[in-house]
Amino acid sequence: MKKPLITVTLLFLFNFYCFSQDSFSKYIGQLVIVKKDATSKEVSGFHKTLDEYGSNNIPYKYEYDSVRDSLTNKKFKCVSITEKEYPYKGYYAELNNDATGTIYYYFEGDILGSEILPLDYLLNKAEYKKDVCSRIEVSEDDMEDKKSFSTPFTSTSVDDAYFIKEITKKGVTTYYLSLSAESSSALATEKGVIILLKNGKKLLKPSATVETDVNKYKHNPYDGDFIRKAFIHLTSTDIQLLATSAIKKFRLYDEDGIPPGDSDNLLMMFQCLLTKK
């Protein structure tokens, strides 16, 4: 299973690093809102300024995050989107509201992240889905006579989840799911993956191999020194299950991870991936 992982990773890594903040230019000047979520009273990623680190820099703070109800039902204007290394490596959307003033939202390259949505897309969900699905990467391998499709993966987050679809010249189609989660401890190769979906169902992979590597993407001292990784060949039953609900979180042997960005976007892209030829 290692060969497909290496091949696809090399094919798509260059495309990701070429990802530019110009991709977000269409959101500048647009109205956005913070998503409502009845299951979560808090929301993370918001900052008062870009020049301070710590809990005092969190607007509408409750413990370690912002109070969601303090930000929902407000319309913010997206003034700018900037790529920065601090306080966290990633993108920062400058949002302005007359009552709230200016705050900043941190995200890792997804379509404006997981907690804010452009208001006009809520009124045109078909256009939003088209935009999300346009981020699926495609490449062709002439040496192995196959075509590959992949949902995006991120270099700014250790926790990651992305789908891969490979089609050979003979028409054989194979699906994979790549998962990774940060860890503070080294570990020999183990087995066992659990994937929890938002609808409460679980995908159990007790024989899936979990490897541990040194965290080459460590940007901050509080990041884990290691990465747990699993590369899973999906069965037809797995595909049917994963196409019905977004991934909430996953466990790689002993470490839990969550998909970066909006897992509902990842589900939408996986559903689009199923139709790619």
How would you sum up this structure, described in words?
- This protein has 277 residues and is α+β, with helices and mostly antiparallel strands.
- Strand 7 and strand 8 form a beta hairpin.
- Helices cover 17% and strands 39% of the residues.
- The chain folds into 2 domains: 158 residues, Immunoglobulin-like (Sandwich), CATH 2.60.40; 88 residues, no CATH class.
- It has a 9-stranded antiparallel beta sheet with strand order 10-11-12-13-16-15-14-17-18, with helices on both faces. It has a 6-stranded antiparallel beta sheet with strand order 3-8-7-6-1-9.
- It is built from 5 helices and 18 strands.
- The longest helix has 16 residues.
- The radius of gyration is 19 Å and the shape is globular.
Ends distance? 22 Å
The CATH class of the largest domain is Mainly Beta
Structural class given helices, strands, pairing?
alpha+beta
Q: Mean pLDDT, nearest integer?
A: 82
The total beta strand count reads 18
Q: How many strands, which pairing sense, and closed or not: the largest β-sheet? A: 9 strands, antiparallel
* Beta-strand content: 35-45%
Rg for CA atoms: 19 Å
Identify the strand order in the major beta sheet: 10-11-12-13-16-15-14-17-18
Please provide the ordered H/E string of secondary-structure elements. HEEEEEEEEEHHEEEEEEEHEEH
Task: Indicate the overall shape.
Answer: globular
Count of discrete domains: 2
Given the structure, what is the number of helices? Answer: 5
- Under CATH, the topology of the largest domain is which? Immunoglobulin-like
Q: Unreliable stretches, pLDDT < 50, 5 or more residues?
A: 1-21
